Automatic annotation (TrEMBL):
CDD domains: CAP_euk (cd05380)
Segments traversing the membrane: none
Protein name as it appears in the record: SCP domain-containing protein
InterPro entries hit by this protein: Allrgn_V5/Tpx1_CS, CAP_dom, CAP_sf, CRISP-related
Classification via PROSITE patterns: CRISP_1
Record-level GO cellular component terms: extracellular region
Length: 152
């Protein structure tokens, strides 16, 4: 996985709208997307590791085949992160304090968008793109640091 300035710029455009919701039409689309609200950019590692990966990895039980898409909300962030064919990523967190964050009442006004290229979670591609664990323990967002506040 490599950083894509182009996908990051598209993520910036989407996050800067301060309208919480997926939008994969900006700049021509063709990318996958994970979004989150309420996290400062300094907490992006924690958001991705804990909020998107660790909270969903055990919900995905369809290795080698096609999943039940009715349960996508339980594992879709995880599967996009590990999607083998997605080789680039670009993220951006926007501070929406001035305008507020639409569609996310009561949540701190920070909108994070991560775009992945090419898109994951493609019907017919799960067996080839979401492999089973290699058996190592997952990491937490502290990455072994004694204080998450100082390490994220």
């Amino acid at each position: 996985m490599t950083w894509s300035p182009t996908l990051a710029e598209t993520a910036r455009k989407i996050a800067s709208s301060c309208i919480y919701g997926h939008d994969t039409s900006v700049d021509g689309g063709g990318y996958g997307q994970n979004i989150g609200a309420g996290f400062l950019s300094t907490a992006m590692g924690q958001f991705i590791t804990e909020g998107l990966y660790n909270s969903e990895v055990n919900n995905y039980v369809y290795y080698g085949g096609e999943p039940n898409l009715n349960t996508l909300s339980q594992w879709g962030h995880f599967s996009q992160i590990v999607w083998k064919s997605s080789i680039t990523v670009g993220c951006y967190t926007s501070d929406c304090s001035a305008t507020g964050l639409s569609n996310a009442p009561g949540i701190p006004p920070y909108f994070t968008v991560c775009n992945y290229g090419p898109a994951g979670n493609v019907i017919g591609g799960f067996g080839a793109n979401v492999g089973p664990s290699i058996g190592l323990a997952t990491v937490d967002a502290s990455y072994g640091c004694p204080s998450r506040a100082n390490c994220v």
